[in-house]
Design a protein that fits this description.
Blueprint (H helix, E strand, L loop, with lengths): L18 H17 L9 E6 L2 E6 L10 E8 L4 H8 L2 H7 L3 E11 L2 E8 L8 E12 L5 E8 L8 H6 L2 E3 L1 E12 L2 E11 L6 H10 L3 H12 L4 E2 L12 E9 L12 E8 L3 E6 L10 E5 L6 E6 L4 E6 L7 E7 L1
Parallel strand pairs: 6-8
Antiparallel strand pairs: 1-2, 2-3, 3-10, 4-5, 5-6, 6-7, 7-9, 9-10, 11-14, 12-13, 13-18, 14-17, 15-18, 16-17
Helix pairs in contact: 2-6, 3-6
InterPro entries: START-like_dom_sf, START_lipid-bd_dom, START_lipid_transfer
GO molecular function: lipid binding
Pfam families: START
């Protein structure tokens, strides 16, 4: 049995991605493109519309009793793909829009947009075990930044958590064939689409399968509403143009702490990002100066703190970071609080 989750802040460089993980990502990307092929649009069954979310489904060809393949589509007004992505992928924000989500952690990072993760979901009822997933994620940003596709798929990482480790926590390992978020700029808005094919495995009541099939595609609507209400987390400003602002700074991990995501315990809205410096550099982070941080403080912490400066332009919603050559080989973090 293995359940040994490492510190997500431990890396000081990107790891080479295992060949089997790269192959799994390519396979999942191909699945998403097939499901999203306009020539095959008729294969989707129209499941109606709820709360301005268009819903679609397909019967799982491998098992008609399994969770169907589902898709949800909505429009997020006055938002860029990068801003919407900054609501989707951080566990601290996900708690606000995914009622089934429990927790997640990064196991390994391969570049600024690709990493291995472990996540587990809440049990849908007292008589049903929770599900967990070990998977790999890649964010693909277009050259102009007007489209971002997020691909997730299951892989094995038994050195960190094997199925016996899941069992020891009363969790059943689910198999995620493909989870794909597609964020496309449309004028000043972003079209948000979510396609999921998952096998929950184990024995499940029909009512639970039905609930998952109904709730999963509605996540796009909840992401939209969280963006409207809470705003978005900070992100690399250069991503809006399909680029990255840093060249000598390794992104290690980021984390958002905001209570448990409920209205009653909104918490302190603390966002932390960890880096490792490999030389002199500069980067810019864009933050939400209207909703999340109408007033922002940024602290620099870590071994390289004395060699890094962070200047806040509240009106522009930009944090400009300067990394001195003396920071080379050392780590630092930026801590955002109201």
């Amino acid at each position: 049995m293995t359940l040994d989750l490492p510190s997500p802040q431990r890396q000081d460089s990107y790891l080479p991605i295992p060949a089997e993980y790269e192959e799994a990502l390519q396979k999942a990307q191909a699945q998403f493109e097939e499901h999203n092929d306009p020539a095959k649009e008729s294969e989707w069954e129209d499941a109606g519309e709820r709360e301005d979310v268009k819903l679609f489904k397909k019967t799982n060809p491998e098992n008609a009793y399994d969770v169907p393949i589902v898709k949800g589509v909505t429009l997020v007004e006055n938002a860029t793909p990068s801003q919407v992505l900054a609501v989707i992928q951080q566990p601290g924000m996900r708690k606000k829009w995914d009622p089934r989500f429990d927790a997640a952690t990064q196991l390994e990072r391969y570049d600024s947009q690709t990493y291995l993760f472990y996540t587990y979901l809440k049990s849908p009822s007292y008589f049903v075990w929770a599900r967990d997933i070990v998977g790999v994620q890649r964010n693909k940003v277009s050259d102009s930044g007007d489209r971002i596709t997020v691909i997730q798929t299951s892989v094995a990482a038994d050195q960190y958590v094997d199925e016996a480790g899941s069992y020891s926590k009363s969790r059943t390992r689910a198999t995620l064939e493909v989870s794909a978020w597609d964020l496309i700029q449309q004028g000043s808005d972003t079209k948000l689409e979510y396609v999921v094919k998952i096998h929950l495995n184990g024995s499940l009541p029909t009512s639970v399968v039905s609930m998952v099939a109904t709730e999963t595609p509605m996540c796009v609507g909840r992401v939209r509403d969280v963006y409207y209400t809470n705003g978005h987390l900070p992100y690399d400003a250069a991503q809006d143009k399909g680029d990255k602002s840093s060249s000598n700074t390794i992104l290690v991990y980021s984390e958002y702490e905001d209570g448990d995501g409920t209205e009653a315990t909104s918490g302190e809205k603390r966002w932390t990002i960890w880096y490792h410096a490999t030389g002199e550099d500069s980067l810019k982070l864009k933050f939400d100066n209207q909703r999340l941080y109408p007033s922002l403080n940024v602290a620099v912490e870590g071994d390289a703190a004395s060699d890094v400066t962070a200047d806040v332009d509240q009106e522009a919603g930009i944090v400009s970071v300067k990394v001195a050559e003396a920071a080379k080989g050392k780590g630092f973090s930026l801590v955002f609080t109201p």
